[in-house]
Structure of Group 2 truncated hemoglobin GlbO:
Amino acid sequence: MTFYDEVGGEATFNKLVSEFYRRMREDDLIGPMYPDDDWDGAEDRLKWFLSQYWGGPQTFSENRGHPRLRMRHAHFSIGVPEAQRWLGIMQEALDTIPESELDDAHRAAMWDHMVRVADMLINRLDQQG
């Protein structure tokens, strides 16, 4: 059984990503980085990526090829404030999933991954936009 299956599969990742984007649409710092006409596409891509990373369907690769996260995000100005905001919104989304559906060990593994990704995508060293 994969991590994806252990945490509830599609339902869990749908909830996480839905909660994340519900908050992201209202964010004043990194929300504007998303094109107004592609919120649904962005949500699908994150869901596909996270699902694939944790052992679920290979939908991301089938539709988009290799994830290449740094390359795909290089045109965005991402500093520490943006990475921290992304993590804060992701933490809020993770917090909506009850422990009965996502135990501490799985939650910690997911959070560790989110922190690594956020740090990896920083491409601006100053503290301003």
Notes: The mean pLDDT is 93.
